[in-house]
From TrEMBL:
This is Arsenite methyltransferase. The lineage of its organism: Bacteria, Pseudomonadati, Balneolota, Balneolia, Balneolales. It is an enzyme of class 2 (transferase). Residues 1-24 are annotated as: Disordered. CDD domains: AdoMet_MTases. Keywords: Methyltransferase, S-adenosyl-L-methionine, Transferase. Coiled coil: none annotated. Pfam families: Methyltransf_31 (PF13847). Belongs to the methyltransferase superfamily. Arsenite methyltransferase family. It catalyses: arsenic triglutathione + 2 [thioredoxin]-dithiol + 2 S-adenosyl-L-methionine + H2O = dimethylarsinous acid + 2 [thioredoxin]-disulfide + 3 glutathione + 2 S-adenosyl-L-homocysteine + 2 H(+); arsenic triglutathione + [thioredoxin]-dithiol + S-adenosyl-L-methionine + 2 H2O = methylarsonous acid + [thioredoxin]-disulfide + 3 glutathione + S-adenosyl-L-homocysteine + H(+); arsenic triglutathione + 3 [thioredoxin]-dithiol + 3 S-adenosyl-L-methionine = trimethylarsine + 3 [thioredoxin]-disulfide + 3 glutathione + 3 S-adenosyl-L-homocysteine + 3 H(+). One of its GO terms (biological process) is methylation. InterPro entries: Arsenite_MeTrfase-like (IPR026669), Methyltranfer_dom (IPR025714), SAM-dependent_MTases_sf (IPR029063).
Amino acid sequence: MKTRQKSSEELKQTVKEKYGQISEQSREKNASSCCGTGCGCDTVDYSVFADDYSDMEGYNSDADLGLGCGLPTEYAHIKQGDTVVDLGSGAGNDCFVARQLTGESGKVIGLDMTEKMVEKARKNAEKLNFNNVSFLLGDIEEMPLDDNIADVVVSNCVLNLVPDKETAFRETYRIIRPGGHFSISDVVIRGDLPESLKEDAEMYAGCVAGAIDSDEYLAIIRDTGFRNVTVQKQKKITLPDEILDKYMSKEEIQNFKDSETGIFSVTVYGEKPE
């Protein structure tokens, strides 16, 4: 039997491999799949998860691979001069939007565990001639960042992919300055997902099976020490039948739809006490 630790490492490797593939593609190619080609759901339009960034100041189409599930920067209360850290920064989309809000006096740091994504983000920042946006290679469960470095942390459809969410939020708490806060968009569930969905590593990389119950998710955040934890926005996600067909029988699909179980994208806010 596999140990839990080994299983977590295997899942993280799956995510790395899939997002490494996605980094080499354009948004147009990714638009036909739920998390990019090869993520185990390549017949689904990712718009069931993603929100439209194109009208936001600072938006850069080269950095938008269509992989998010919300607009955390829109709700993050970022101010001029802030230091912002984006967890799972991908090609840099949220970082460049955040940089528009911090201005030249601020600082934006993107952290991602996929080498090719970091490389792509750095190239995008170089093309934009931004000298106050940087990208680091690292693991959210063990961030290569100093304590109390960030005024604001943002993240977009990433923490649901992290096996150890308790450690991820403890690390998030560690890097936020007292009085600072986060705004994180993520995928959560209500009720019990079918075991076949939970166990499939491809769906884990595809932003669904790595998600946990919404009450558990919020409890982890509060137990970490964050205060004033609120859900800023939520949207129910409907997976098309052609995806569910891969994991369930027709009867199981109907029972799933008739149940109170649901998949939601949520944007959550929390503060670190002074």
